[in-house]
Fold:
Amino acid sequence: MRSNRTSRIAALLFALLFAGILFAGLVLFLLKPKETVSYYENRTLAEKPAFSLSGLWDGSYFSEWEDYIGDHAVGRSTLLRLHTQLDLDVWKRPTVNDIVPTEDGKLLAYYPDAARTEQQIAADSAAMAEQCAAVNDLVTSYGGTFLYVAVPGQTSYFADSYPWFLSEQPEQFEPQRTALSAALSARGVPFLDLGDVYASLGHPDSFYSATDHHYTYSGAFAAYQAILQQVNQLSGLNFKVYTSQEMQFDTLENPFIGSRLRKIYGLADSEEHLTIGTFRQPVAFRRYEHGAPAAASCYALPSDSAQEISFTVYMGGDSAETCIQTDRPQLPNLLIFGDSFTNPLETLLYASCNEMRSLDLRHYQDQSLYDYVSAYRPDVVLCVRDYSVLLSPDGNGTLK
Amino acid sequence: MVLVTMSWVLFRADTLGYAAHFWGAMFGGGSGLLDHQTVYYVLEYAPELLCSLVAVFPLKHWLRRALERRQSTVGNLLLTCAPPVLALILFALSYIQLVTGSFNPFIYFRF
Structure:
């Protein structure tokens, strides 16, 4: 039998070790410099909570402490990366950090709770279509043209790449797209589904990123052409639609970190690079950001080719209000609004306009889109939304 | 344990009808015993399920009895050191789980 003395000594030693680890963890937590941003999570980290009686009363003060301690835990980044690596390479989970690594090398999204009931879809699509109809009525009242553009997200575009047991993932957006299309049609709102456009072009893989939720520049260029052709048909305007022969496309050497790749700490192999397009015959312009003069460029390029880049290369990322003026009053004015799918489109659209403005209603808070259009009265208003947010009233889904 | 598992449904359900529906689904009354989601969950949580399969047996009890019967030096050392070492490993795993639970990524930068 083991002696009681040995057992007691061992228990004491381990108790001391345990207490030492707890104490060391606390000291390290207190002493380590606190980061403010988590690059791979794409967000700011929680700040130390400020005490307030109301926070104490409703419990938020302690919740904030929990967030703060969680965000700044010792070894957090290393552990998160290790956890992701284990899930990817050892456990081979089908989803890692809500990303589905597919057999053909794509990184797609996993949406745990995106499905809506038929009743929800009917109600939400009617509400969204009502908003769009109001804007359409406003724009047509002064002789302008409104076009709602639905763009497939990467999830929908690469639906066939999902493993069979996750095939419902991309399908859950289909009823929403169909319902909104019907609701807009019933209200006479012009609607362009880029999914149909891409299908007519043979649905090439090269139109969408394998590691990001957006289209590639090729996909954006095809979208740009289809949109302007549709606008010309609807409005009778004669926007110049540039052909690929009139463009120069350059692939950037920089390593590209797509949004899906970022969520798994860049731990999958990717050879993707971003492409940018410039006009062979440049169109001079001035650019304004929320009224302030900005550099006359459509691309935010890093200083060296080794620096990692993301989709924010296009137009410098999302912006509340961008205005590009080419000073050609004989050409129409165009307003485009939507999420980041608009960014590469903007690098092309401005060349056919006297003035192109872009709004991102997630950031633009000065007034509603409806009021903005009422005051600005552009010849064309484009709404660009991807399949996953067609019925979402958040951000660019609140128009009035 | 089955009753405990079943009772958790009551905390999750908004109505008794929903709870009844949920209990039915737990016994194959939803989409049957096997659908796409089942396959997904089995694959996604395969490591945890395998651990659970092992953990349902009284392994610690069997191992301790075997070591006590053997009366060897290594056996005694294991009997003394293994429980706290395992506790420390569990503590480390719990810490990792807590820390990774704070993972909260966004597609668009969140201020």
Notes: Chain B has a mean pLDDT of 88.
